Amino acid sequence: MIIAPSFLSSDFSHAAKEARRVDKSGADWLHLDIMDGHFVPNISFGPAFVKFIRPHTKLFFDVHLMCSKPEILLEPFAKAGADEMIIHVELGEQVEPLIWKIKQLGKKVGLAVNPPTNISAVEPFLEKIDLLLVMTVNPGFGGQTFIHECLPKVQQAEAWRREKGLRYQIEVDGGINNETAAECARAGADTFVAGTSLFGARSLKAAVTKMRKILHANDPALADLKV
Ligand code: DX5
Ligand code: ZN
Prior knowledge:
- The chain has helices at 15-23, 47-53, 74-80, 95-104, 151-164, 178-187, 196-199, 204-217, 220-226, and strands spanning 2-5, 29-35, 60-66, 84-88, 108-113, 131-135, 169-173, 191-194.
- The protein has 227 residues and is α/β, with parallel strands linked by helices.
- It has an 8-stranded parallel beta sheet with strand order 1-8-7-6-5-4-3-2.
- Strand 4, helix 4 and strand 5 form a beta-alpha-beta unit.
- Helix 2 (47-53) packs parallel to helix 3 and helix 6 packs parallel to helix 8 (204-217).
- The relative contact order is 0.16.
- Bound molecules: D-xylitol-5-phosphate and zinc ion (ZN).
- D-xylitol-5-phosphate binds next to strand 2, strand 8 and helix 7.
């Protein structure tokens, strides 16, 4: 189980310190939300910001590109220190070349699907990706409410992974707290992005520890072993 705090909910006025705080929290990854003001109605930060925080943590950088033209951003983010880049399936015919470009850059590939998009849209790409991101809110802002209707997509992603013998990770992002994380874990998710619920806690470290304990208790793989 991977816990990836979303940096969007951190205090940007102390970005370096916040990156160090996540590093020491026991979290596994750092999730970085890139918004271009076009694909989503908000703007966050770019490669220069990612480069600035890179020296402050050794954590894996999970870069979520909510952008209409990721092709112009892949190389800059790769150079800035991204370990994985996630693009959206809603980009249609751009998806295939973008996957190859990310691979060429030597980075892990993620593919995201928005709540209104049918999960069948990702099926043709499953053999080519390292991670499937099932969005559990409409992207653009932190602090939104988890959309329960997205849970069957997690179940479908898990069923495909098993049936096809694939190994991609299943990530959920949006409105993830201890309760919704547990539901997603039971549905088959293994990678959990959380902004508000983790950064809003008095102690990030305590919040990560608690979420991990809850995920462990709801891990279907471990449940099988207990039987
Ligand atoms: C939403 C972003 C999320 C966001 C999650 O557009 O992709 O990563 O930061 O924030 P919370 O956990 O507050 O919903
Ligand atoms: Zn995200």
